[in-house]
Amino acid sequence: MPMEDSARTACVSRTFLRSWRHHPYLILSNRTLGLKQNASGKGDVWAFTTKIDQILKNHSAAGVKTLELDVFECRDLNACYLSDWLQIAITPKIESLTLELPSKYEEEYNFPCSLLFGGNGNLIRHLHLTYCAFRPKVGIGCLRSLTKLHLSHVHISEEDMLQMIDSKAPNLSTFNFTGDNLVQFSLESLQVKNLGMACLKEINFLNYSITKLPYMVPNLETLTLSSYNEMVNTPTIAARFHHLNYLEIYLDAGLFPEYDFLSLGSFLDASPVLETFILSRAMKFDPVLEDFGDASNMRQLPKHKYESLKDVMIYGFCSAKSMVELTCHILDNAISLESITLDTVNDWEDEEDLGRCSVAPARKSGECCYLDSDSILEANKGLMAIQKYIAAKVPSTVQLDVRGPCSRCHSLEPSRYEVKC
């Protein structure tokens, strides 16, 4: 129920008012509070703080089990409010805490770790922090129930040169980490099944992931890797992800044009029970490539049957020879494949699989993402590569979904170049 409707109902129903004050699950943001941004893109800080103050004070007696506090859009919020709100919310009853702050707080706000001690953190299962400093005291036995930890742009060490994260949480099952550089992990729990990692500056992040993670987190079932500056091809290894069934790899603009996509086959070789493979490539560089002839000129990796692989999705598919080689390698070896999606446009708004706006009137934004003329040309080259080298290799039992630029939003007419959808 929207906040405004809840407030109206509470005014006419004491029963609803009492139940609301005892409701232990709170998701507080500009959207849930019914607040809108002004022309400068900022929210009404006074209205935001006043509403949250009132809500949390009304819940101080009953306690809160889940608090999701999203103040990312309130860039002018005074940090003293945060400490007051957390003081109210963090009690022995709290089980899940999410705090999303404006980026400027990364070096300005120290999360009050002391609130988690003395029994207050014993029941916390989910902890999600962004843009703050988080420096718990070593040896304090809090967060014993922790199963899911997400740290993004969080300063942990005083010098900001973090080298290792040592977790003693015995029940930890989900761990997400985003950082500039590689860090070593010591995750005591063998229950870690879901891992997400993003590295912003390292040139060999995928190399590190495939050589280290099979030993550090041997029971992984889902793995999401995001590399923003990859320049080293992925090596072939003997180690295995014995339980991995979902793998997603995102490669951003730092990727150098000669990167060998075929080397990613090493991840498939290392994952004998993998069912879903997703590869996303940012549409920010245009590989300068010419026609590479017929199929006889393409490299082939040693035969390695992928008996469990069912679904493959490649977003930002390009005409790079190694990308075509990787796709053909998958088609040749995934004996249980059911569907393969090749999208030459990496459209971040297409989260609900609606397709381009010209064929999907239900699309929320009404139009597609902006692509410059070079990206549109590259997307069309990708379509040509699919038609020439890949389409004929797809078995009749496999559903092939090919997506290209939108005929309405991604026209190459000069008048469309400067129009952002």
Automatic annotation (TrEMBL):
<dbReference type="InterPro" id="IPR053772">
    <property type="entry name" value="At1g61320/At1g61330-like"/>
</dbReference>
<feature type="domain" description="At1g61320/AtMIF1 LRR">
    <location>
        <begin position="160"/>
        <end position="407"/>
    </location>
</feature>
<dbReference type="InterPro" id="IPR055357">
    <property type="entry name" value="LRR_At1g61320_AtMIF1"/>
</dbReference>
<protein>
    <recommendedName>
        <fullName>At1g61320/AtMIF1 LRR domain-containing protein</fullName>
    </recommendedName>
</protein>
<dbReference type="InterPro" id="IPR032675">
    <property type="entry name" value="LRR_dom_sf"/>
</dbReference>
<dbReference type="Pfam" id="PF23622">
    <property type="entry name" value="LRR_At1g61320_AtMIF1"/>
</dbReference>
